[in-house]
Amino acid sequence: MTVGQQRAWDRHWERLGQEVKALPAGPVHFDEWFGREAPVVLEIGSGMGETTSQLVAAAPDVNYVAVEVYKPGLAQLLLRAEALDVTNLRVLRGDAVDLLTEHVEPGALAEVRIYFPDPWPKKKHHKRRLVQPEFVHLVATRLKPGGVLHLATDWEEYAEQMLAVCSAEPLLRNRYDGWAPRPEWRPVTKFEQRAVEEERISHDLMFERG
């Protein structure tokens, strides 16, 4: 990690972060961790935190949780959050599937966001993609009624897979007829900017828990 990232980690991790593998058995009590009751938004794969920090700052009325495996990325997110003076962020380091399976109660989440997950473009690697039927079902069970799964990708073929998988999940319904309009409030990520430069179209999907 950079010096700045390490300092941010040292200042904030103990209060704002936890390792998924070190969590006590059972569900995370988000209200206790945040010190307030508010809708919980979970972002899976927050990367280096540039977009995430802006989303957190723009939504002070939600309890925003970011789960990411990359330690320097989480440290950078903590650094960005500190610069924006946000108080409604908590971070978890580890596997999102383990978190959802073992530590999130059914119906606990208002929204799950997955922006530009690794597309694993080679066909032999498609099985490594995050958005698969079993995973989408798991997410759907953790959403409260009316809760939203929001996906975005700039890989056309992965977008089609996401649409097919989510459409086949009986607990979810598409809020739109196919792709969702790109929300103005979602900042442009570096991946999305690269896609624009490489003339790839980004797609958003918004599915709601029935």
Q: Kindly report the spatial arrangement of strands forming the biggest sheet.
A: 1-4-3-2-5-6-8-7
Q: Looking at CATH, which topology would you report?
A: Rossmann fold
CATH architectural group: 3-Layer(aba) Sandwich
**Residue ranges: pLDDT <50 for 5 or more in a row?**
none
Coarse shape: globular
Compute the gyration radius: what is it?
17 Å
State the separation between the terminal residues, measured CA to CA: 42 Å
CATH first level: Alpha Beta
Strand content: 15-25%
Helical coverage, percent range: 25-40%
* CATH fourth-tier homologous superfamily: Vaccinia Virus protein VP39
Number of domains: 1
Given the structure, what is the number of helices?
Answer: 8
Largest sheet: 8 strands, mixed
Mean pLDDT: 96
Tell how many strands the DSSP assignment holds.
8
EC number: 2.1.1.33
GO cellular component, one term: tRNA methyltransferase complex
Pfam families: Methyltransf_4 (PF02390)
Function: Catalyzes the formation of N(7)-methylguanine at position 46 (m7G46) in tRNA.
Write the layout of secondary structure elements.
Elements: H1 3-16, E1 17-19, H2 30-34, E2 40-44, H3 50-58, E3 63-68, H4 71-84, E4 89-93, H5 96-103, E5 109-115, H6 133-142, E6 143-153, H7 156-167, E7 172-174, H8 190-197, E8 203-209
Parallel strand pairs: 1-4, 2-3, 2-5, 3-4, 5-6
Antiparallel strand pairs: 6-8, 7-8
GO molecular function: tRNA (guanine(46)-N7)-methyltransferase activity
Family: Belongs to the class I-like SAM-binding methyltransferase superfamily. TrmB family.
Function: Catalyzes the formation of N(7)-methylguanine at position 46 (m7G46) in tRNA.
